Amino acid sequence: MTDASQHAAAPKSLLVADSRTRSRKAAEMRFRLYGMMAVGVGLLALVFLLTSVLGNGLGAFRQTFVQIPITLDEKVLDKSGTRDPAVMKKVTTIGYGKLVQKAIEDELAAKGIDTQGLKSKEIMGLLSKEAPADLRDRVLADPGLIGQTIAFDAYATSRVDGYFKGRVTLETAERDSNISPEQLKVAQAMADAGMIETRLNLAFLTASDASELRPEAAGLGVAILGSAYMMLIVLVLSLPIGVATSIYLEELAPKNKWTDMIEVNIANLAAVPSIVYGILALALFINFMGLPQSAPVVGGLVLTLMTLPTIIIATRAALKAVPPSIRDAALGVGASKMQSIFHHVLPLAMPGILTGTILGLARALGESAPLLLIGMVAFVKDFPAAPPEGLMQPATALPVQVYQWTQRADPAFVERASGAIIVLLLFLLTMNAVAIVLRRRFERRW
Amino acid sequence: MSVGLLTLIILGLAAAGFLLGRQRALSAVKGDARALHSLPSFYGWSVFLFTAVPALLVMVAWLFLQPTLLETRITNTLPAAETATSSTDLVMADVRRLADGLDVLVAREGLDTAAVAALAADLPALSDRMAGVGVAFGADLDPAIFNAAIAYRDLGASLTGMMTIAALIVAAGGFLFALMRVHPEQRARNLVEQFIVVLLIASSLIAVATTFGIIASLVVESWHFFRIYPASEFFFSTTWNPQFRGGSDLGLWPLVWGTIYVSFIALVVAAPIGLMAAIYLSEYASPKVRATAKPLLEILAGIPSIVYGLFALVTVGPILRDWLAMPLGLGNSSSSVMTAGLVMGIMLIPYVSSLSDDIINAVPQAMRDGSFGLGATQSETVKRVVLPAALPGIVGAVLLAASRAIGETMIVVMGAGAAAKLSVNPFEAMTTVTVKIVSQLTGDTEFASPETLVAFALGLTLFCFTLGLNVLALVIVRKYREQYE
Amino acid sequence: MNDMRIAERTVSTNTAKITARGVQVYYGENHALKDVDIDILSGTVTAFIGPSGCGKSTFLRCLNRMNDTVASARVLGEIKLDGEDIYDKRVDPVTLRARVGMVFQKPNPFPKSIYDNVAYGPKIHGLTRNKTELDEVVETSLRKAALWNEVKDRLTAPGTGLSGGQQQRLCIARAIATSPEVLLMDEPCSALDPIATAQVEELIDELRSQFSVVIVTHSMQQAARVSQRTAFFHLGNLVEYGETGQIFTNPRDPRTESYITGRIG
Q: Which stretches make up the ABC transmembrane type-1 domain (chain A) (predicted)?
């Protein structure tokens, strides 16, 4: 036999592995290890990402406050004594600032805290620049307070806040023009005396953005509201349009070149980079149609266009999952095509459609690139009004607020941005959880 | 009348139409619904649809066209001297801002028309008041601009009025037309259903319109760009150096290089890790491990890119700089091609792995059995049978991931830097097409300048690139799937 | 006729290649195979017959541990190849499968060239030293599988492009290229037309001179045509095992008789 040489190889024992088998086995183990490493790297990246965000951002929910009793002197705040807010508005924040300054110096003296020779201005430097404005807002909202002594919780400046959170140390303060080690020592003494406290700060979620110099006062209120407005628009527009498109393509459309083109088109739209949608929005909605910049309505429209393909793809899958027998049954009792769809197929597909919609909304909520182009990066301090007018007024969105904060110089904004991400991720987590529950609850196996 | 109110009125009229139509049909047969061709509510719906849909369409179309009309009409009234010194767009921007500012003033202080006209007497004072409502003007207000703004507001108001009237007439017309046609013999159900089919088709056209809108806006504005900036410079120059006062070099290549470099690093990270993870999860992992690890990996895919951007900016960038770039003497920038590429790679891992997972699972089990039956180990089976069989699909998946990488914006905006250069050092800050689209369109330069318009040409380039990759990938993947069906 | 006599003589003198004692197989809770004892002889074609779900394929897959790839399967008892327990912890199923080859129900050529399909086994097991030897193995295997003349001019063409019968013979060539001692065939003709079936059956008979062949089949005619010994499985039990002629003409067990005469199955 020609192949005798191979066959002649004496049958080796199965129980003893030869060197080739051993090396193949080692290769097998290596390959397996690479696979485990790849999964591990992915999971590690996830853990690293989340811990980094949580580590940087949890601090944003806590804030350092300076507690000062302030006597609201009528002579300073309301000379006329009318308690008329229109008149009282004439007293600017500078007037209130002096009042705050006097109060804090009195309090320091009363508590016997050594001020390390700090000047008045430096003592005021411990407080946020927002503090006098806060006090003014509070008095204007309730003129009855005038003449009383109230407990006023002022934001500490971001550096003092950072000191109590460990971000700022006496060493870094040496090199910092915004704070000196002496100031920090005074702050420490104030904390020991119970004048300074770090606690939960819900204003982070409700307050509006603050300027570059006052990170301690910046909040997510406008961004959350703006995002909510946009999600409302996306939901109201993309759900009906997406469902209508899917019904047409899945149930009614003849299979021809034209509908083929629509389908290819939708598949490609799903893969168009989001920034390109931003360009579309800028050219079409803002330059051509003249809609206002930074308005939730424009953001909502562009996110709708982006979300539509996702919803259409999910809806079509849900419609496809309804077995044809249901349609036949409805047609068999004399229902029209339209009735069989709207009475039977659509209700059965609804859980799938809603799941897809929620996931689409979650993606839209996290989208930022197109919003940058339609001017949502602008600094917006005022809350937009209730819809529908509010939809045309400037607002910002959660992810864009994150971007904005990262572009600012003060490192305290990094903490804010990470905090905002935590809020964003919580929203996304909730939406995804709802989608999963929906799917589990209503999933139907045919 | 505001658009919202108008919509409400039209819908109210339509709702009334529904009730009346239904009522009319029923009363024609003396309440015996069996004598009707269709269910009574179909008669109501027919009136509703004929009332609401055409009127709302008129309204939307009007809103769409009004700005253009307004713009051309006002531009024509501007004195030639105005448009001679600076571009028409700039002047019109001032006109619009002034008109908006006046709107705010009117809303805030309750001025009447006469009071608004009287503002012309003291333009510097008006300028100050405008600044008070957040509309600041650099130079002094020009009377011509003020007049144009007044005309703009007047014309806008009268156009809106005309729109209201037109929409209401159409609504009333549809209402009466449909109501008159209500008749027991009328095939109301068929009519309503046909109407709905038309609406469904119209909805599906929105997707087509979006594509058309994207292409049109990119092409038109790019065309404007190439009229004022030579295309050869754009496509062949290797310098990117925009200037505020003109004379910019707007060469595409540094941006394309940055884009390709970042995407390349991202794929070098994502493709092997994603592929190996998919292989492990589909070929090796026990069902339990798979059921936990797969959703966990997919969380990475659900995280918005802004989060990755922040991760690059505050965590990965500084780590790479302090531990790699500085010790190796390769640079001291925390934003770098490496930072952006690495983070983008992490983002793409689940994308590659879930696509590859689908593709690997599509390889028939018989292939694996055949290989095992010959005494191949699992890794030999994967490497020599499964992967070669799945290769086209995997190539498609990597192409899709590449297209995602090229179009990704936030990670590179926050992680790659802004310096346009052609360098091979991955620890240097470079920039990408998407970064420059953002920076050119969010800057303060005037819209009609080449520095702004170049963003559209960049957008067009990006669109073509990603579209090409996607189509190629989809074709490959589709061919691959057909092979096993 | 001369050939037949030789074959019969070999049967009587051949020794047991595989011995199985008390083999039990569970798929999860399902007890698929109950207490099977069997000796499979070398140089013989052994047919496993029985109705669907009787455990014949399950047992076949135990013989080269293909059941290992099914996560829920558990195999108890003892199966020895040349006196060595193949379920011993020290045994690598990979080496076992190189010695106990397998051909599947549906032709499953790899999406590679004809040449690469056949060369796959020798390559992974490192059976050849150079390209010439590999070429030789590929040619011999294809010749033995009676496919050489049909494909010798297009060895680089994809194996998936062949007809069904050719594909199955390619799979057989692929299996014998690693020079196994035992060849397991799981209903190798069920996906083939009658002409291709006849070709494969002829091939099986020729292969007997070098390998022990175990074939699972649905068709009793096929079992009668190709095998020297036949085992009848029913509901997970090995009911009867003996010379093919005896099983078909003079079954001892009433169940075997019912099956053969077409009353069950």
A: 224-435
- A245 min Cα distance to partner chain C (Å): 40
Chain B contact for A52, CB < 8 A?
A: yes
Chain C residues closer than 8 Å to A13 by CB:
84
Q: Mean pLDDT over residues B405-419, rounded?
A: 91
B485 touches chain C (CB under 8 A): no
**What residues make up the domain containing A329?**
221-442
Closest alpha carbon to B178 in B39, B25, B37? B25
Edge to edge, what strands does the sheet with A196-200 contain?
A149-155, A62-71, A196-200
Residues A152 and A77 in one domain: yes
Architecture of the domain defined by B240-481: Orthogonal Bundle (1.10)
d(CA A225, CA A427): 13
For residue C171, the chain B residue with the least C-alpha distance is B370
Task: Assess A289–B contact: CB distance below 8 Å, yes or no.
Answer: yes
Together in a domain, A375 and A438 = yes
Q: Are B374 and C98 in contact (CB under 8 A)?
A: yes
Residues A188 and A332 in one domain: no
- Tokens 């953005």 locate to A209
CATH architecture of C16-260: 3-Layer(aba) Sandwich (3.40)
Cα separation, B405 vs B345, in Å, equals: 8
A107 and A238 share one domain:
no
Beta bridge partners of C243: C229
Subunit contact C179:A7, Cβ cutoff 8 A: yes
Asked if the structure places residue A180 within a domain, the reply is: yes
Give the pLDDT band of residue A4 (cuts 50, 70, 90).
Answer: very low
Q: Are strands A196-200 and A62-71 parallel, antiparallel or unpaired?
A: antiparallel
Q: Which 19-58 residues of chain A touch chain C by CB within 8 A? A: 20-21, 24-25
Q: What does the domain layout of chain C look like in residue ranges?
A: 16-260
Per the DSSP assignment, residues forming a β-bridge with A154 are A66
Give buried/exposed letters for A424-439 (b at 16+ CB in 10 A, else e).
bbebbeebbeebeebb
Nearest-5° Cα angle at A387, A384 to A393: 35
CB pairs under 8 A between B and C: 74
Within an 8 Å CB–CB cutoff, is residue C209 touching chain A?
no
The residue among B353, B410, B431, B440 with the most chain A CBs within 10 A of its CB, best to mutate, is B410
Is A287 within 8 Å of chain C by CB?
no
Give all chains having 3 or more CB-to-CB distances under 8 Å with chain C.
A, B
pLDDT of res. B185: 82
Question: Does A161 share its domain with A67?
Answer: yes
Q: Tell me: the pLDDT tens digits for B100-141?
A: 777 777 777 777 777 777 777 777 777 777 766 666 666 666
User: A2 falls in which pLDDT band (50, 70, 90)?
Assistant: very low
Over 60: is that where the pLDDT of A8 sits?
no
Q: What is the pLDDT of residues B174-220, one digit of tens each?
A: 999 988 888 888 888 888 899 999 999 999 999 899 999 999 999 99
Using an 8 Å CB-CB cutoff, list chain C residues near A7. Answer: 179, 210
Q: Do C136 and A21 touch (CB under 8 A)?
A: no
Interface check C206 vs A, CB under 8 A: no
Q: B277: which chain A residues are within 8 Å (Cβ-Cβ)?
A: 35, 38-39, 41-42
CB distance C201 to C188 below 8 Å: no
Q: Is residue A107 part of a domain?
A: yes
> Is residue A37 assigned to a domain?
no
Residues A227 and A327 in one domain: yes
Kindly indicate whether the ipTM for this predicted assembly is greater than 0.95, answering yes or no.
Answer: no
**From the list B70, B210, B379, which residue is nearest A269 (CB)?**
B210
Residues A225 and A360 occupy one common structural domain = yes
Query: Distance (Å, rounded) from C-alpha A355 to C-alpha A310?
Result: 11
Cα–Cα nearest to B261, from B319, B344, B148? B344
- In this structure, are A248 and A393 located in the same domain? yes
Count the domains in chain A: 2
| pLDDT tens track for A237-283 | 999 999 999 999 999 888 888 888 888 889 889 889 999 999 999 98
